[in-house]
Design a protein that fits this description.
Layout (H helix, E strand, L loop, with lengths): L15 E7 L3 H12 L5 E4 L8 H4 L31 H14 L6 E2 L4 E7 L4 E6 L2 E10 L22 E3 L13 E5 L3 H13 L2 E5 L6 E2 L8 H9 L3 H16 L1 H4 L2 H18 L3 H6 L12 E2 L3 H5 L4 E4 L3 E5 L2 E4 L4 E3 L2 E4 L9 H5 E2 L6 H8 L15 E3 L12 H22 L3 E4 L1 H15 L3 H4 L21 H9 L6 E4 L5 E2 L2
Parallel strand pairs: 1-2, 1-6, 2-3, 4-17, 6-18, 7-16, 8-9, 8-16, 9-12, 10-11
Antiparallel strand pairs: 4-5, 5-6, 13-14, 14-15, 19-20, 20-21
């Protein structure tokens, strides 16, 4: 069957559900599929928007695509044989998620247009009490699939709201604004900007790119799959698994450059500088685009056309951050003022400062964001937090990757969640909460592993780390290590309680 792009008709909320899943991106849909396969049908997926897709529903800017190969950026249990390109585009990824949801029988569990307003753990009843934009319900277990690429980050620049023309963030692209023949300011040079700048360059009269720090850029080598390749993928047993395996292990091999450095990192930097020289013949412009920190310290840009776009006559690179926005101009730190008609912010996201963290109140009366303000953004195995029973975070702290597909991490976490639910069932427990000692110990090990990596010691400032320099975002080593870690539910790290409030042996 073919997936539909229209939203399911609104269904009423149940008064209670065994499991409530928040969000309908890869995390939410993957969890829903796993719950059904585990024989758990008493669940709902709450989605604040009018359709599923998560990041791949919200980011519709021109050129939006994935920088991980298509076969790797998909569920292992739902391979797609006919990806159009080696690197899939946003509409195709969203369509894929819709197809998986439809084929897996998830759509009847989906409640769109349902925003979680607040959630409070009831330690007497041992359940979550949720208020939503469509009514209240309770849940035994709450799974957050909200993700980090949700809330746009806008820079704290004086005058942002005074700009007289259209302005918007790339994750909230205003398609009603015709940029043809316009003078467009682009603030930021991250992964999103690297995708939409080449598209803007083709239509805008002038594009002024404000660059705080030049990113490392490597070639994407993207192309369309041929009909013959599609036939082989569909008809040759095991070929699709082989293709995914090759993509997986080639990216895991690259990781040594980030966690070990040495010759391999030097080789990658040499290749990236050669690519820069090939794409940007002008030595003055090339100097402005040459990073002064180790490759991988910030997110590496994977693009075939970004650097080339910066060399076009209608593109200007201002190697200076924005200090002020005026009604008709943007001012850089170097003192230059640039008159523009439109401002587009490609300035990333508030990765772990998600709205849900401000709305969930745990056992001790603190919200998740307040808990993280006290202890730093952390979780046990990136999934559970002390003081928040029966709450599971997907793509939580230190589960993001700098080298390969986060879908791998999501699937490993989902397996852990299902194992936790089985442990609760077998122990006849109503509440499960990670012990703070276990959480502290696992995070101490994790931070120690991050110490010598390029993400911590590469000589740059990035969104991977907080203001104190603590890396709260990335997993420090190979994904296979994380998968092995999550394969067994460590019941000894948890306190299990029944409604009678007596500890249950693990």
């Amino acid at each position: 069957m073919s997936a539909t792009t229209t939203s399911p008709a609104p269904r009423p909320l149940p008064p209670h559900a065994r499991v409530v899943v928040v969000g309908s991106g890869f995390s939410g849909i993957g969890t829903a599929v796993a719950l059904r396969e585990a024989g758990i049908d008493d669940f709902v997926v709450l989605e604040r928007a009018d359709g599923l897709g998560g990041t791949w529903r919200d980011n519709t800017y021109p050129g939006a695509a994935c920088d991980v190969p298509s076969h790797l950026y998909s569920f292992s249990f739902a391979p797609k044989r006919d990806w159009s390109h080696v690197y899939s585009r946003q509409p195709e990824i969203r369509s894929y998620l819709e197809q998986v949801a439809a084929d897996s029988g998830v759509l009847p569990h989906l409640r769109c247009g349902t925003d979680v307003v607040s959630g409070r753990w009831d330690d007497d009843a041992l359940l979550w009490r949720l208020r939503t934009s469509r009514g209240d319900l309770t849940a035994d277990v709450l799974v957050s699939g909200a993700g980090g690429l949700v809330e746009p980050h806008l820079p704290d620049v004086p005058g942002t709201g005074t700009f007289a023309g259209p302005w918007f963030h790339s994750a909230r692209w205003d398609h009603s604004v015709d940029l043809t023949g316009k003078r467009v300011a682009v603030v930021g040079t991250g992964a999103s900007a690297a995708q939409f700048v080449p598209e803007l360059q083709r239509t805008a009269a002038e594009v002024v790119v404000f660059q705080r720090t030049p990113p490392w850029v490597i070639a994407r080598a993207d192309r369309a799959y041929t009909e013959r390749e599609h036939r082989v993928m569909a008809g040759v047993p095991g070929f699709l698994r082989l293709a995914r395996g090759v993509q997986y292990w080639s990216r895991e091999a690259r990781l040594r450059a980030f966690i070990g450095g040495g010759r391999l990192r030097g080789l990658f930097e040499k290749q990236a500088l050669a690519f820069l020289e090939q794409q940007v013949p002008d030595p003055e412009l090339r100097a402005r685009l040459t990073p002064d920190y180790a490759i991988g310290c910030k997110r590496v840009i994977v693009s075939d056309d970004y650097l080339r776009a910066l060399t076009r006559p209608n593109v200007q690179v201002v190697a200076s951050p924005v200090t002020e926005v005026r009604p008709h101009a943007v001012v850089a730190a170097d003192g230059t003022e640039h008159e523009v008609d439109v401002v587009v912010y490609g300035t990333g996201f508030r990765v772990m400062d998600i709205p849900l963290a401000h709305r969930l109140t745990g056992r001790e009366g603190r919200t998740l964001s307040e808990e993280w303000e006290r202890s730093g953004v952390q979780a046990h195995r990136g999934t559970t937090v002390a003081g928040f029973p029966n709450l599971f975070l997907l793509l939580g702290p230190n589960t993001v990757l700098g080298h390969t597909s986060v879908v791998i991490m999501i699937e490993a976490q989902i397996g852990y969640v299902v194992a936790a639910l089985r442990a609760m069932r077998d122990a006849r427990a109503d509440a499960l909460e990670v012990r703070r000692s276990a959480q502290d110990a696992s995070n101490a090990r994790l931070q120690a592993e991050l110490t010598g990596t390029v993400w911590n010691a590469g000589g740059c400032r990035s969104w991977y780390r907080d203001e104190q320099g603590r890396n709260f975002t990335l997993w420090p080593t190979h994904t296979v290590t994380f998968m092995r870690l999550m394969r067994r539910f460590d019941a000894e790290s948890y306190e299990l309680r029944a409604a009678r409030r007596v500890p249950v042996p693990a």
